[in-house]
Design goal:
mainly alpha; 5 helices; 72% helix; 0% strand
Length: 152
C-alpha cells in the first residue's frame, strides 16, 4: 500500500486555494452564472437556448479542473493559455448574441428575459476573462521577445 500521509494538498485544499486566485474566481463565477442561466432557460417556454449555457459551463468546469490540478504544466502538447483565450472569446460572443435574442424575443416570458439578462452579464464576464488572458499573453510575449540584432 502506498503511504498517503506524505502526499501534497488534497483536492479540497487545492479547490479552496485556487478559487482565491483571480483566474480561479473568474472561472468559478463563469460556472455559477452559467448554472443560473440554465435554470432560467429551463423554466422558460423556450428551452432551446440552454445549449450555449450548458456547453460554456462544461468548458469552464474542465478548464477550472485543469488549472486547479496544475495539469496545464504537465500536459505540454496543448497551449492552454491560447485555448482558454478562444474558449472565453467564443463564450462571450455566443452569450451576447443569444442573450440579445432572448431579451428581444422574450415578451411575456419572464424566465427567458431573466436568462437573457444573466446571459448579457455572463457575456461581459467572459469578455473580461478574454481581456485578462490577452493581457497575460501580451506580458509573456514582451518578456520573452527574441533579439533581432544580426551581429553576434
Amino acid at each position: 500500500m502506498a503511504d498517503t500521509t506524505a502526499s501534497g494538498p488534497n483536492c479540497v485544499e487545492r479547490l479552496k486555494s485556487y478559487v482565491k486566485t483571480p483566474k480561479g474566481s473568474i472561472l468559478a463565477a463563469e460556472i455559477l452564472i452559467s448554472f443560473i442561466i440554465i435554470i432560467c432557460y429551463a423554466a422558460s417556454r423556450y428551452g432551446g437556448y440552454s445549449a450555449v449555457a450548458i456547453c460554456e459551463m462544461i468548458f469552464a468546469i474542465v478548464f477550472f479542473g485543469i488549472f486547479m490540478m496544475e495539469m496545464d504544466k504537465q500536459i505540454k502538447v496543448v497551449n492552454w493559455v491560447w485555448t482558454d483565450l478562444f474558449r472565453a472569446g467564443i463564450g462571450a460572443v455566443l452569450y451576447i448574441i443569444t442573450s440579445l435574442i432572448c431579451v428581444i424575443r422574450g415578451a411575456g416570458d419572464g424566465a427567458l428575459i431573466a436568462g437573457g439578462v444573466f446571459g448579457l452579464i455572463a457575456g461581459l464576464l467572459f469578455a473580461y476573462d478574454t481581456y485578462t488572458i490577452y493581457l497575460q499573453i501580451k506580458s509573456t510575449r514582451q518578456h520573452t521577445a527574441a533579439s533581432t540584432d544580426d551581429r553576434v
